[in-house]
Amino acid sequence: RGDISSVTTTSGLSWKLPGRVGDSPIVGAGQYCDNTVGAAGSTGRGEANIKVCGAFLIVEFMRQGMSPDQACMKTIERVIAMTERRLLDPKGRPLFDLQFYALSKDGRFGSASAYEGYRYAVADSSGARLIPMPFKFARSERPEMPAVRCRRA
Fold first, then answer.
1. Euclidean distance between the first and final Cα of the chain, in Å?
2. pTM, whole model, 2 decimals?
3. Fewer Cβ in 10 A, N or C end of the chain?
4. Which of 144, 145, 78 has the alpha carbon at shortest distance from 112?
5. Binning pLDDT at 50, 70 and 90, where does residue 153 land?
């Protein structure tokens, strides 16, 4: 029929603080769909994504004419630009990872990741396959990611 939709799931952040809400349940952050344009979703550090309403932003960039890959990468760049200094390494690279994926109404698909090394699955009339995600930084540039530690009350 030509309709599209969006969906996402979460495994949550290990040892999360009580009351923490990630991006998955927030329409516009973890997932978003406009049936006239396309749909987008994410995985990774939800707090960073919430600040930019990442999935909504990707769909809006596609509305402006960007490809799904371009829209996802532009959103990765927006996340990095809005990240607090304490969550960046001395060279301005995030101390977390985030990936976006998108599908346009006309059937084009794309994705982007902050760091190299991720793939996403596509299934269409050509069959099912894994496609490497475009990335902002090479794996060799990835800083040591801090461990998340929380004390129990």
1. 52
2. 0.87
3. N
4. 78
5. very low
